[in-house]
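User
Here is a favour to ask of a fellow structure person. I am asking you to supply a protein in sequence and structure-token form. Please set it down just below, with no commentary around it:

Assistant
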Amino acid sequence: MSEWDAGNCPIRDVMSQIAGKWSILLLHALSERSYRFGELRRLVPDISQRMLTQTLRDLQRDGYIDRTVHPTKPPSVEYSMTPLGQSLFAPLSRVLQWAEANHTLVKAAREKFDTSDLAC
């Protein structure tokens, strides 16, 4: 389908950023409340500082989150969800609920596939 070409596809363009494993986790956290950088780092301990910084920048660039610098010593940076991010999170939250509800079934399907002849 020509409308799905990499350079012209709005679906690919938008989904490429929000489909990453870190983006979804950070959007989920920020849907609940604002967080400082260090709080997000502790909330997702297996993300590197570099990856957290890059993912937050990408989400900010696309308009899903805001970054606010508070004039304290040292400066405090807080991230929050924008109205665009909230509008994205409404349908995304249903996918996350589905994932949680069906995780056991997905794991069982993977195990079945991995032990079958199809996995080779």
The mean pLDDT is 90. Helices lie at 10-18, 21-32, 37-43, 49-61, 83-114. The radius of gyration is 18 Å.
